[in-house]
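During the second year of the project, the team shifted from modelling isolated chains to modelling whole assemblies. The rationale, set out in the original proposal, was that interfaces cannot be judged from single-chain predictions alone. As a representative example for this report, we include one of the complexes processed in the last quarter. Its constituent sequences, exactly as entered into the pipeline, are reproduced here:
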Amino acid sequence: MSSTDGPAIVLDAVSKSYGEVRAVDEITISIGRGEFFGLLGPNGAGKTTLIEMIEGLRVPDSGSVTVLGMSPAPRNLKLLPLIGVQTQGSAFFTRLTAREHLVTVAALYGLPPAAAERALELVGLTGSGDVRVTNISGGQRQRLAIASALVHDPQVIFLDEPTAALDPQARRDLGAMLRKLKATGKTIVYTTHHLDEAQGLCDRVAILTGGRVLALDSPRELIASSGIGTRLVVPAGRLTLLEAEELDGVDRVDVVADEGIVLHTTQTARVLAALGDLDDVETRPATLEDVYLELTGAPQA
Amino acid sequence: MSAYAALSRATYKATVRDATTLFFTFAFPLVFLVIFGLIFRGQEVGDTGRGYIDYIAPGVLSWGLASAALFGVSFTLMQWRNDDLLRIIRLSPASLWSVIGSRYVVALAIGVAQSVLFVGVAMLPGFGMRPDATWPLAIPTMLLAVTAFLALGLIVGSRANTAEAVAAIANCIVVPMAFLSGSFYPLELMPGWLQGISKALPLRYVNDGMAYAFTSFGTMTDYLVSCAALLAFGAVFAVIGVRTFRWSNNS
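Output from the structure prediction step:
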C-alpha cells in the first residue's frame, strides 16, 4: 500500500498493558482519509494510550499500528512531518511570543518563518502574534496549540480536548475553526468530553471504556440504533399519568420531579399530534450524549 | 533556519527575558566578589606581592560558571519536559542533539559573557585583580567547565520533575562542592583528607585551571591535568545524561 491511498490510520488488534492494567485491549479501528474521527470515553478509558501509540510515542504490546501506510514506531522520520499533534496544556516555548513560538516550531520541521505566519492566520491569531505565550487568553492558548500542530501542514492531525476549559463563546469560535479545518480534507483524530460538539463535528466516533471499543459509527447511526428515541417533556399538571400512558405513539412514561411528565417515543410526530394544542411541550431528540451515557454507564461485562 | 539554530534562539530569548536568571547568572558571582573583596581588603598573600583578590577571584568565577551551567540546563530540561515541549520536539523530525546542542551553545555563550563581565569588574580599581599573561589559558578551562557542568545538568534535569527539585538537587551538588573544592577558601588551609576529597570533584579542576591561568598558581602540568580531568568528568556525565534522558514524565 502506498502512502497516498488506503486508510489514514489502521489499528489491528492493538493491546497495551501497564503492569496488570490493560489500558488498551485488542482495539481494531480503521480511519479513512479526510475523516473527522472522535475518540470518546471517560478518563482512563485508554484514549491517551491509544493516541500515543498512533503517534509512535508508545509501542503496543501486540497488534499493529499503521499511519499513512507506515509504522509510527520506532521514531519514524518520514512519518513525523505528516502528522501534527496538539497537546493538552501549554506546550509553548518559555517566555516567547506566540509568533516566536511558532517560528521555533516551524524550524523544528526545517520550515521558514512564513510557515509560522500561515499557521497564525489559519487559527485567527495574526493580531496577537506579538503577545507572550504566558499572557494570552484561554481561547487563544488553544488556538496557538492547534497552530503548533498545523505549522507544517500535516495530513493527519491529533487534537486532544481542544475545547476543554473554554467559555461558551470561545468554544463556539473554536468549533467554527475546526469545521474549517475539516473542510480542508485533513484527517483529524479528536478527543473531547463535549459530546454535543463531537456530534456536530465528527464523521464517526468510537466510544471507549476499559480499553475496549463499545461502539463505533457515525453519531447519527449510533443515536438511531440505540433506540433511545425522543423525549417529550410536558409540564406538571397538564396531563395525568394515565392520560399520558394512553397517548398514541408513547412507549414509556416517567414522572420527573421539577420537570413534569416525560414521554418516551420513537414516533415524535404521532405523539405531538395526539397532544394536540398543549403548550410548552419540550421536544428533546436523543443525542450522542444519551447514547454515551447509556453505554458507559452500564456495568462492564 | 535549522532546528538547532531555532532552539538556540528560543533558549537565548528565554534566558535574557528572565530577570531572576540574569541576576543569578551575572550579578550573584559579583556579589560574592564584593563580599570577599571586603573581607580581604588590602591584604597581600605572604610575600608574593599579590592581593587576595588574585586568589579568590578565579575560585568565585569557577563557582559562578559551574552554577550557571548546571542550573541553566537542568531547569530548561525539566521545564521543557513538564510543558510537553520535549513531546513536541520528539514528534518533529528534529534530533535529540539539536535539543542538547542548542542548550550547549547558549551555555557556552553565557559562560563567555559571565567570564568577561566578572574579570572586568574584578580588575576595577576597588578590587584590583591583575591577571597574569597566561590568562588566555582560562578560555579552555571555562569551555571545559561549562561542558562538564552542563552534562551534569542533563542528569539532574532528567531526574528532577519540579523546579523545587531542580533547585534542591543542584544546590546540594554545587554549594558543598564549592567549599570542598576551594572556590571560596584556599584548599591549602584545609585538612589533608579534605584536600583528598576535592580530587574527586569536578569543580576542583576548574579552580586549578583558573588559578593557573590568572595567577600562575601551580604548574603547567597541574593545568593540563585539570583540563584532562574536566574532559573525563564531562564525558562520563554526558554518557549518563544521554542515557537518563526522558522525553516525557510518564515513560
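The first strand of chain A starts at residue 9 and ends at 18. The mean pLDDT of chain A is 89.
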